[in-house]
């Protein structure tokens, strides 16, 4: 990496990836996640805006999108009325202070410090002589609570008298009510005051689930550092702000009013604010006083508010819980770390390591840019997030998750697209939309293959699982009107038994059905869309050449995996559903793959046999014959793509056409509006071995020429110049944004991965380095450490934290850049590090988890050679030389050697390059 000066933005201050940022309030759209495994999900900004929730239907603070971060006045505020000075907000949320951002003479000094996963803002006003330090986190326990500690310090030379008031608006209901019945749902509010704070328990829930009795309670509790409770409360928003006032300049704060309520009172039918006023105090110079505020969501009103206050609202408990929280997140992240010549990159990758965990908890929702989701993850997200889990921990801990996921596969090769909250729970789609993404069948094989390579558990392929069943049949082209939802969502046999097939059978169907599901040009139909969800307007004649290449690669590798299963497990035959033999045409009745109609007719035959129920009969198939069938299909696809989808344009550049539109026209190539090219169309032919080595070189040149932009990196596509109603809504987006020509991290990282896989290490490195440099260039990106979903035309990082690109980035850096991966359970090493990635001692290392052992794998490049010039010369484990065997360009260390090491200890694997 390049070690550019990062003085204009955040910088790391320790080896735990803690970072600091000066004047964070001067950057718009910044937000930070606070979360725990119990499901407390928060977003917090430098001014403590954001929201707090546990689900779509339980928001403590009002839900916010990215624009609300600067439009909304609702924030976690902490007011201080200073005698002789007036109202001052410790969070900067007063009308007066908000103007400071544009008035350097009266500017307050603000600093941010953050780590895993805590957030601290320090705000100082030298003229007044006061400093506030605000620390926020979500404890690592089973409670749904966010804690805030505010420490006020007299930084002047005179005594100051302060009257503090915590003020957090309590939305206390479903996100659906933010506009729809906003006032009506406030009439449901029942507000209670107790010794330590305010609780809101609406009588009913008023959302898409119907009008139901509500028990969920939203609380704001607080005490000073000594455990002393508030002196009183302002529970109702309209009384708190006063007529003509607002949350930035509330009347009761400006006038330092006496509290409106004491403990033990009840109020009904109003918007509420958790406004807790504390006793007036006098601070001598350099004296400090702290206040602890707990923001909590509970299933019912707490039986003892005093017990909760004792648990959370003391400085001692706060500090203990904060250290526990730091230790918990460190433990979650300690199985993977990288050491290169660029320490900023090493630390930045730690924040990338966090991101798949965040997506597992938040799903694709509940952070400000992710305002389109209602919780949960889609099918593609689930499988790709598992990639990171498999390399960060014991793969067998992920086994049950993988197994449960396969229950979402339909017998027609499609799948449910929304994952429920319980293991193995699926629904067809949100709002029961009949839509099929053609790429969905490809991802489970990639993830399962990684699991088998990491664990050696190849017999997982033989475990039996159910199939998902609903009214959608023939890949959502028809309806099964005989299906009765009361019978559940599992495929039945003609005898009304629940049918089960092996995991291998599930993957086989997902991939082999697609081989026959082709369009006019004999590539797989685009259907509802592929990975690029915005290519959604070509369901009749559209084709995805890109994912035809991935399915071809899957069939080829599945064929090889079958032969490994035969060798490793001693299995010669497999039991498959009788109906599937129709699709194994080379075994039963061969057809001409060049004739589209023959493929579609055969597929229709198969669909007719399994549209309602299946026979339940199974057929024994030879592994050798099955592997040959898959291999023949893969070879046909590869030859077809090489011969028919390779483009050479007028400027002499060459690459693959990635798509056909709904007019059955190729999408890429020369056009009157300019050259059209997609990155996706190149990634999968390269990654899957469809492109020859010569073609890979030409693709790299074409991508550099047409898609690489020094300002924003590798674009997802070139400028098409017009709306493409015959391919997808994405071209309605402005060019350079999201799916239309942005640097979309997911596909850019996959391009890097593909280049690394094909031994183009410098090209692979350049992509990852560009993403890293763009992300850490705070002056443009305006994001905290980590990888965003995409970089906008202005260079701003967008949709931070919850992106599948994080899993692929971790996978690529570990398995391709550092070359540490599994091979049917054994350890394979094939480093592709460049010379400038080794430190001054000519070393680079990765701390990883393999075979249930912690390994510090140290590459020693004593001669300072560049990638391509070195090979692995010797390997030692804890000082003892280890035997290895060469396999293509990698070396293999037996799993048995590693398994003999002591558990729960760190072991060093030294690899000498020369």
Automatic annotation (TrEMBL):
InterPro entries the record matches: 6-hairpin_glycosidase_sf, 6hp_glycosidase-like_sf, Gal_mutarotase_sf_dom, GH65_N, GH94_catalytic, GH94_Enzymes, Glyco_hydrolase_94_b-supersand
SUPFAM superfamilies: Galactose mutarotase-like (SSF74650), Six-hairpin glycosidases (SSF48208)
Domain of life of the source: Bacteria
Domain Glycosyl hydrolase 94 supersandwich: 109-313
Gene3D superfamilies per the UniProt record, alphabetical: 1.50.10.10, Glycoside hydrolase, family 65, N-terminal domain (2.70.98.40)
Keywords, in A-Z order: Glycosyltransferase, Transferase
Pfam family, one: Glyco_hydro_94
Domain Glycosyl hydrolase 94 catalytic: from-to ranges: 628-817
Keyword Transferase in annotation: yes
Glycosyltransferase recorded as keyword: yes
Name assigned to this protein: Cellobiose phosphorylase
Originating species: Chengkuizengella axinellae
């Amino acid at each position: 990496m390049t070690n550019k000066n990062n003085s204009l933005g955040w910088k790391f201050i320790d080896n735990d990836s803690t970072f600091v940022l000066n004047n964070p309030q001067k950057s718009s759209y910044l937000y930070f996640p606070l979360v725990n495994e119990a499901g407390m999900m928060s977003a917090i900004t430098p001014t403590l805006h954001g929201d707090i929730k546990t689900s779509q239907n339980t928001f403590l603070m009002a839900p916010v999108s990215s624009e609300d971060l600067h439009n909304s006045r609702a924030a976690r505020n902490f007011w201080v009325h200073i005698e002789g000075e007036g109202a001052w907000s410790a969070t900067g949320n007063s009308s007066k202070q908000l103007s400071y951002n544009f008035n350097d003479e009266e500017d307050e000094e603000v600093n941010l410090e953050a780590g895993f996963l805590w957030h601290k803002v320090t705000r100082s006003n030298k003229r007044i002589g006061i400093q506030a330090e605000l620390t926020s986190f979500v404890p690592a326990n089973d409670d749904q609570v966010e804690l805030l500690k505010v420490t006020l310090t007299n930084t002047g030379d005179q005594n100051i008298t302060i009257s503090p008031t915590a003020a957090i608006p309590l939305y206390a209901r479903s996100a659906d009510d933010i506009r729809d019945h906003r006032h009506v749902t406030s009439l449901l509010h029942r507000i209670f005051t107790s010794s330590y704070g305010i609780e809101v328990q609406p009588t009913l829930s008023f959302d898409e689930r119907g009008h139901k009795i509500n028990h969920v309670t939203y609380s704001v509790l607080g005490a000073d550092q000594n455990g002393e409770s508030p002196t009183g409360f302002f529970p109702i928003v309209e009384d708190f702000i006063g007529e003509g006032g607002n949350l930035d300049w509330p009347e009761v704060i400006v006038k330092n009013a006496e509290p409106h309520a004491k403990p033990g009172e009840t109020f009904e039918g109003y918007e509420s604010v958790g406004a807790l006023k504390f006793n007036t105090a006098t601070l001598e110079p350099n004296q400090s006083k702290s206040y602890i505020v707990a923001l909590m969501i509970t299933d019912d009103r707490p039986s003892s508010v005093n017990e909760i206050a004792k648990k959370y609202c003391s400085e001692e408990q706060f500090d203990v819980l904060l250290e526990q929280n730091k230790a918990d997140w460190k433990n979650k992240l300690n199985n993977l770390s990288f050491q290169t010549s660029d320490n900023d990159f090493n630390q930045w990758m730690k924040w990338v390591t966090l991101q798949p965990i965040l997506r597992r908890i938040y799903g694709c929702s509940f952070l400000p840019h992710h305002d389109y989701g209602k919780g949960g993850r889609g099918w593609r997200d689930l499988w790709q997030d598992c990639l990171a889990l498999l390399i960060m921990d014991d793969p067998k801990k992920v086994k049950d998750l993988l197994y449960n996921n396969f229950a979402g596969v339909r017998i027609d090769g499609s799948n449910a697209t929304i994952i429920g909250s319980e293991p193995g729970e699926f629904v067809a789609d949100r709002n029961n939309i009949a839509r099929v993404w053609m790429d969905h069948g490809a991802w489970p094989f990639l993830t399962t293959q990684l699991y088998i390579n990491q664990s050696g558990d190849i017999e997982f392929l033989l475990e039996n699982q159910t199939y998902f069943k609903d009214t959608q049949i023939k890949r959502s082209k028809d309806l099964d009107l005989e299906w009765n939802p009361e019978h559940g969502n599992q495929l039945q046999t003609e005898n009304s038994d629940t049918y089960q097939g092996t995991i291998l059978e599930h993957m086989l169907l997902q991939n082999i059905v697609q081989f026959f599901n082709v369009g006019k040009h004999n590539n797989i139909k685009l259907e509802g869309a592929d990975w690029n969800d915005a290519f959604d307007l070509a369901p009749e004649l559209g084709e995805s050449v890109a994912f035809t290449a991935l399915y071809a690669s899957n069939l080829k590798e599945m064929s090889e995996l079958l032969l490994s299963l035969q060798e490793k497990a001693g299995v010669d035959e497999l039991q498959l559903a009788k109906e599937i033999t129709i699709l194994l045409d080379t075994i039963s009745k061969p057809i001409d793959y060049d004739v589209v109609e023959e493929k579609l007719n055969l597929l229709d035959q198969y669909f007719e046999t399994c549209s309602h129920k299946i026979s339940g009969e199974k057929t024994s198939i030879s592994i050798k014959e099955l592997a040959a069938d898959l291999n023949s299909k893969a070879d046909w696809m590869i030859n077809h793509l090489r011969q028919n989808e390779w483009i050479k344009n007028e400027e002499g550049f060459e690459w693959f056409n990635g798509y056909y539109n709904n007019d059955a026209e190729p999408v890429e190539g020369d056009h009157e509006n300019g050259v059209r090219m997609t990155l996706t169309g190149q990634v999968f032919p390269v990654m899957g071995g469809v492109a020859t080595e010569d073609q890979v070189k030409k693709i790299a040149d074409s991508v550099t020429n047409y898609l690489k932009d020094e300002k924003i990196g590798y674009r997802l596509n070139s400028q098409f110049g017009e709306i493409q109603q015959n391919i997808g809504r994405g071209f309605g987006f402005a060019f350079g944004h999201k799916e239309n020509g942005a640097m979309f991290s997911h596909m850019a990282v996959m391009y890097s991965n593909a280049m690394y896989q094909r031994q183009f290490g410098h090209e692979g490195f350049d992509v990852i380095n560009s993403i890293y440099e763009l992300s850490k260039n705070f002056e443009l990106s305006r994001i905290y450490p980590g990888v965003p979903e995409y970089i906008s035309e202005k260079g701003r990082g967008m949709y931070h934290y919850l992106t599948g690109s994080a899993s692929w980035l971790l996978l690529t850096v570990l398995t391709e850049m550092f070359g540490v991966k599994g091979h049917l359970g054994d350890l394979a090493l094939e480093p592709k590090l460049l010379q400038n990635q080794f430190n001054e001692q000519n070393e680079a290392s990765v701390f990883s988890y393999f075979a249930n052992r912690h390994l510090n794998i140290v590459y020693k490049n004593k001669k300072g050679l560049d990638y391509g010039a070195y090979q692995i010369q010797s390997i030692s484990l804890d000082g003892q030389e280890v035997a290895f065997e060469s396999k293509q360009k990698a070396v293999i260390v037996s799993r048995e050697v590693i398994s003999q090491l002591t558990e729960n200890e760190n072991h060093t694997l030294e690899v000498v390059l020369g």
